[in-house]
Design brief:
- By secondary structure, this protein is mainly alpha-helical.
- It is built from 12 helices and 4 strands, in the order βααααβαβαααβαααα.
- Strands 1-2 form a two-stranded parallel ribbon. It has a two-stranded parallel sheet with strand order 3-4.
- α3 packs antiparallel against α4.
- The chain is globular and about 60 Å long.
- The two termini are 26 Å apart.
- The relative contact order is 0.11.
- About 2% of the residues have low confidence.
Length: 276
């Protein structure tokens, strides 16, 4: 299962190119209807060029990075000069900090892809730009995520789901649960409708508790023979974080009953689709 996942990745294996381009919400993107397909497609083209640049010459690799930096600054972000300077500065550091000087070989890989949680926001245009796209949507327990310290997506994208910026710890948890519910409900609806059998739902807790079973599901989805894989080795790569079940030690009375009901409806919808 040798897939090219990008030459520059974070500690969590997130694709830094995709995160750099798409994690922050552009100023012009105020709702999903305002997604400018032409602009987004240009961004996908730049991202694709970055992903494949390690297979080409050092010159091409360098030019791809320069193109990406200026695209971020001039077309994707706001027109505020301070924003341009920030993107140009940070982009240059990321682009050339870990530039590989050895060309990769196509023959090594059976395919390519990326990992970046915010991909679900762009699922509709992704399904059009990459017509053969296979999308894996990994879902964690909603209540556990409500108490997560990682609120980046909520802060960047909550507005698109009608969730105002929260104030205070309890408000943050309530807003995070609402975001989990709305974001996953939309991802499931869009993915199931547009991708069908090319959309795979996976549960993070099930992956941790029953890795062999879930890895078999994943390999089948990717068109691989589970019997040809070293399942013991793959299972050994999965580490259960201590944050699983953290909501059991929290005061759940801070959540409104209707928000709990909405979360449970999404969970049931996910279970129903997974069982099909």
């Amino acid at each position: 299962m040798d897939l090219h996942m990008g030459d520059v990745r974070s500690r969590d294996k997130d694709n830094i190119w995709f995160a750099g381009m798409f994690f922050s919400r552009p100023a012009w993107l105020t709702d999903f209807k305002s997604l400018r397909r032409n602009t987004v497609f240009r961004a996908f083209s730049v991202f694709e060029s970055l992903m494949f640049s390690p297979f080409r010459s050092l010159f091409h690799m360098t030019m791809s990075r320069i193109q990406a930096i200026f695209f971020f600054a001039l077309f994707w972000r706001s027109s505020v000069w301070s924003g341009w300077k920030r993107v140009l500065g940070q982009g240059t550091v990321i682009a050339f900090k870990e530039i590989p000087f050895r060309r990769l070989e196509y023959s090594r890989y059976t395919g390519w892809g990326w990992k970046e949680p915010v991909s679900h926001i762009y699922l509709e245009p992704l399904s059009v730009y990459f017509p053969g796209l296979r999308y894996i949507h990994l879902v964690r327990d909603g209540l556990d995520m409500a108490f997560s310290g990682n609120t980046g997506q909520l802060e960047e994208w909550g507005q698109l789901f009608g969730i105002p910026a929260p104030c205070g710890e309890n408000e943050m948890a309530r807003a995070a649960l609402k975001y989990w519910t709305a974001a996953n409900n939309r991802a499931v609806e869009v993915g199931n409708k547009l991708l069908g059998e090319r959309f795979l739902l996976m549960n993070f807790e099930e992956l941790c508790y029953a890795p062999r079973q879930e890895i078999k599901r994943l390999s089948t989805f990717l068109g691989l023979d589970p019997n040809a894989l070293d399942l013991d080795e793959l299972c050994g790569l999965i580490q259960m974080p201590s944050s699983i079940g953290r909501h059991k030690e929290k005061d759940l009375s801070i959540f409104r009953p209707e928000d709990i009901i909405a979360k449970e409806k999404v969970e049931k919808r996910i279970d129903r689709i997974k069982s099909q």
